[in-house]
Amino acid sequence: MGGVVVERDIDDLPKNPANYTALTPLGFLERAALVHPTRKSLIHGSVAYTWHQTYRRCRQLASALTKCGATFGSTVAVIAPNTPAMYEAHFGVPMSGAVLNAVNIRLNAQTIAFLLGHSQSAVIMVDQEFYTLAEEALQIIANKSKNQFKPPILVVIADESCDPKSLQYALGRGAIEYENFLETGDGEFAWKAPEDEWHSIALGYTSGTTASPKGVVLHHRGAYLMALSNIVVWGMNEGAVYLWTLPMFHCNGWCFPWTLAALCGTSICLRQVTAKGVYSAIANLGVTHFCAAPVVLNTIVNVPKEETILPLPRVVHVMTAGAAPPPSVLSAMSERGFKVAHTYGLSETYGPSTICAWKPEWDSLPPEARARMNARQGVRYVALEGLDVVNTQNMTPVPNDGKTVGEIVFRGNAVMKGYLKNPKANEEAFANGWFHSGDLGVKHPDGYIEIKDRSKDIIISGGENISSVEVENILYQHPAIFEVSVVARPDERWGESPCAFVTLKPGVDTSNQTRLAEDIMKFSRSRMPAYWVPKSVVFGPLPKTATGKIQKHVLRTKAKEMGPVKKSRL
């Protein structure tokens, strides 16, 4: 009676194979091989591959893994630095249906044994330099498991830059050489994308500084979205030449193995990261982009002049994350011609998931002011749906005043599936519908967030909270300081007070460390509140993780062992 009859609701149209498929970054490789089959995909020393060759090798790897029993949901561990095999594993392993576990090569055998046992790795691919490390880890597992231990298949990755004796040792112990392993596979292997994009693509482990490492499980959808998001937030061009200064075992190289395939770019593998190696690659291999922790940037700006190639032959784009970068380091990088993008994230968020998105109006600011703006952690990545700083008591957002401290929380497709076999940790991490980072920060009036500290790194002195990061940023301005980390030390008067662990720049006279310490304290008193000033200064190298993060938990232990400060007057 005059009404409109709606036969089908607009949202009722069904999915079908023609209009819906699970998202996965594996298809980027197939496309790169189609579009640019002869373009260089990987360069490592005297070894170079094209995209056609890399696609074929990854299919061979997937086929070989399938033949030796790697099935859907099983785990394949890779213990290797930045080499072509590590890159190929990011495609070949998930193409077989298995899950990639890229292992930190700087871990000790005991920790690697935990990772391999916890993940139940069926196959282990290991660089020849680290074969004995893997062997020691497996022996630890065997000793604990007694007769229940089934040894995994061991594949040893050869590298021309390593001592050939280590390869011969591995082969003598029954390992299969990587190239021979590939030959058992089919270069035309008909790999299949996952039926469900929620399927796991990678497993990575947190540092485990206070307890056993937690296994972070990532899915195909997140890897796909974050790989493309890297391109968007960084403004990367097709065919970029990317230098692997960031370990691929760290958060799957921040998803850049998949990003480079999407861009049809070229990866320059750098087995060992040195400032000289970085400048050499920029000069000789056309590098346009690289990622690195702030500690690596600090090395680059403090390298002797004869090891640089300044001015740079082109603008080199740098993405930094892993710790809050000191504004002084960002300013020094800019002066040398590097364009630095500052990002922030965690293993649980596929690596960087926020960026200090640059605004054109900042270009007119003085250099120091520009560096301060770029030192903030910024806004969410394009592929991250939610980012906020909240009051942990009631989960309400903190005001945008740049002062009120809260916890940084995340939500969306760029958040992990969860921790493997750890329901209690998952319950805590995902409380109230957000992923809790454990990082404390503020929101500025423009909505950009800025980290003030890890919750465990805040120093409480005389009832006042002190941000170790803010103290470090000021200390980095001292002309003699190369690296610095500030932690809490017991203090008889104040409960705890700042203790600065300092590495000095090359050439600094260290004959009178007492006078140096006094000079640093005097410098501090002129630039920060009195209660922030370090009451003790310790000189020497700083302990670091494989990705260049300073291990504050080690320094906190050292500070505690030093005993309380007995005559703190400030």
TrEMBL record:
Keywords: Ligase, Phenylpropanoid metabolism. Residues 29-420 form the AMP-dependent synthetase/ligase domain. Pathway: Phytoalexin biosynthesis; 3,4',5-trihydroxystilbene biosynthesis; 3,4',5-trihydroxystilbene from trans-4-coumarate: step 1/2. One of its GO terms (biological process) is phenylpropanoid metabolic process. Residues 470-549 form the AMP-binding enzyme C-terminal domain. Belongs to the ATP-dependent AMP-binding enzyme family. NCBIfam families: PRK08162.1 (NF006020). This is Acetate/butyrate--CoA ligase AAE7, peroxisomal. The lineage of its organism: Eukaryota, Viridiplantae, Streptophyta, Embryophyta, Tracheophyta.
